[in-house]
TrEMBL record:
Residues 4-35 form the Reverse transcriptase zinc-binding domain. This is Reverse transcriptase zinc-binding domain-containing protein. It comes from Brachypodium distachyon. Pfam families: zf-RVT.
Length: 125
């Protein structure tokens, strides 16, 4: 509250776009590269719901929503690291955040979901 941002322009790309939810998480070229990491066929759709459906349909995993949230969190954390800590955004850094968070989620995974989850995250280690 009462924190004045100097700009409302996306810091993750050089497109001088207004930082809207749809831009920062799905339409930004940075976000699209991040989604491409886990979803090779990702093409950003107009609505948040349609973007989530594309990811769900590619993965067909019971934990697709968790993965979607982790990628979104990684993009958001990369954005905040840039604005508040002066860390230059990079795809490598965003992937590192994603992998670290994925490992934390994995340790909390329920045993019945363990095998499918382990096989999936082993692709990203
Ligand atoms: Zn952007």
């Amino acid at each position: 509250k009462n924190f004045h941002l100097q700009s409302h322009t996306c810091v993750l790309c050089s497109q001088q776009q207004l930082e809207t939810r749809n831009h920062i998480f799905f339409h930004c070229q940075f976000a699209r590269m991040c989604w491409g990491y886990i979803c090779l066929m990702f093409k950003s759709q107009n609505s948040v719901h349609d973007n989530i459906m594309v990811i769900k349909q590619e993965h067909k995993l019971p934990f697709h929503m968790g993965i979607t949230m982790l990628v979104s969190w990684s993009i958001w954390k990369t954005r905040n690291d840039c604005i508040f800590n002066g860390i230059t955004p990079s795809i490598y850094g965003c992937k590192r955040i994603f992998k670290d968070e994925l490992n934390l989620v994995f340790h909390r995974a329920k045993r019945k979901d363990y095998n499918g989850f382990k096989a999936w995250i082993d692709k990203f280690r």
